[in-house]
Design brief:
single chain; about 90 residues; mainly alpha; about 55% helix; globular
């Protein structure tokens, strides 16, 4: 866990010198990865995207109504170990 934290801090430190275009490219790559993973592993999101070519805006209410179907059925190894966190639901 300590190595993961150090790696994250290093990325943050390096990122402060990125150009706006570099940041845009990194964000786009990460968003495509997240999108692909969610379409492949979330029954709710896969159904939501059927026939669509653009990502719709998902509201807090959408996520609450989707319940467990919203969540990925497969967790990437780099995100392990994981645990459950609950909040009051306020923003």
């Amino acid at each position: 866990m300590e190595k993961l934290f150090k790696d994250l801090l290093q990325k943050i430190d390096e990122g402060q010198w990125f150009t706006e275009e570099q940041i845009r490219q990194i964000q786009s790559k990460e968003l495509r990865s997240l999108y692909s993973h969610h379409v492949a592993n979330s029954p709710w999101y896969k159904k939501l995207m059927e026939g669509k070519t653009r990502m719709p805006i998902i509201t807090k209410k959408d996520i609450q109504e989707a319940g467990d179907r919203f969540f990925s059925e497969q967790v990437p190894r780099v995100h392990l170990p994981m645990s459950t966190v609950k909040t009051s639901g306020s923003t």
